[in-house]
């Protein structure tokens, strides 16, 4: 029996593993090719994938519409007015419009009779239908006081010269040559400034050029002079002018003649 088994094993041919491996690899290659063909076909048909993707944001949905206003309440039905029984109740008589308008009756002030029948609480001489106690009109306010006159600004004396001429000299007094000046043989020119008031009288004298022995005689004489008033725009004004007196021993009167404006040459 052992011999038979050993004899059969020796007869069995031993081919090896190489043909099986080659067959397996061939089947794998064929299956791979069959599986790869559909992927290649699909990749050629797909569109190219863009590099940048745009995200679209959809707008917010509109708000829901406001709810409808509440329905107006149904008008209530007026309740039926129950008739009031008029039995035994006196109804007022309807007032008829007057056919004509009559003026109101006024009571004379001096009359003592008044309205026939009188009016309760009335006053003698009152008006029918007047207001109890009456209304007294408020006294009118006094008129405003007139504005005060503007203060009078005292104007200084007007200086004679230019377009302003000295008024006429109405009265002049000759100066007396002082005996002391005659004995001392003093002579010369004394210049004075005289201020004349609105009446033409000299009110002030000031010495501009002095000779001590002759000043007093010159001032005393000029103070007695009188001029006609100086009128400017119809108003008398004070004025000031210069008076020149020349004392000379060669003249009998002791000074030179006056000019019409009151000054000496």
Which key phrases capture this entry?
two-stranded antiparallel sheet, 265 residues, 4 helices, four-stranded mixed beta sheet, disordered C terminus, alpha+beta, 19% helix
In short:
The protein has four helices and eight strands, in the order ααββαββαββββ.
Can you count the beta strands?
A: 8
Shape: flat
The level of helicity is 10-25%
Compute the CA-based radius of gyration.
Answer: 74 Å
| Portion in strands | 5-15%
Round the mean pLDDT to the nearest integer and report it. Answer: 74
Structural summary, described in words:
The chain has helices at 2-11, 18-45, 179-183, 215-222; strands at 158-159, 169-171, 188-196, 202-209, 226-227, 230-232, 235-237, 239-247. The protein is an alpha+beta fold and 265 residues long. The longest helix is centred in the N-terminal third of the chain and has 28 residues, at 18-45. The model is unreliable at 1-8 and 252-265 (pLDDT under 50). The chain is built from 4 helices and 8 strands, in the order H-H-E-E-H-E-E-H-E-E-E-E. The strands form 3 sheets. A 4-stranded mixed beta sheet has the order 1-8-3-4, with helices on one face. The chain has a two-stranded antiparallel sheet with strand order 2-5.
